[in-house]
Design goal:
By secondary structure, the protein is of the alpha+beta class. The chain has a single domain, classed as Pnp Oxidase, Chain A. The chain is 21% helix and 31% strand. The chain has helices spanning 30-42, 79-85, and strands at residues 15-24, 58-70, 73-78. The protein has a three-stranded antiparallel beta sheet with strand order 1-2-3. A hairpin with a 2-residue loop joins strand 2 and strand 3 (73-78). The chain starts with 14 loop residues before the first strand and ends in a 9-residue tail after the last helix.
Amino acid sequence: MQPESEGVAAQALARVSIQGEAREVEQGSDKARACREAYLARFPEAAPLTGFADFSFFEIRPSRARFVAGFARAKSVTAETLAKALVDQRGQTH
């Protein structure tokens, strides 16, 4: 979601809703370590939580998405279109 700003209604903010299948990432796997590293790069204060036995990462394999550019401006997109939009100019996925 677009960051909130003063004077802009929440319904007018750009956002995306993703539909897909969620799968738990196997704890202790290379993928789980990569997820933890990426997560803590964004939320470093959450480090203690990732050590709890019941803490898990999940990956979502998108099937489709709904992009809302603001009030009355929306578009549905396929998983392929979403994947292309998430690749930056250097070819890296976000």
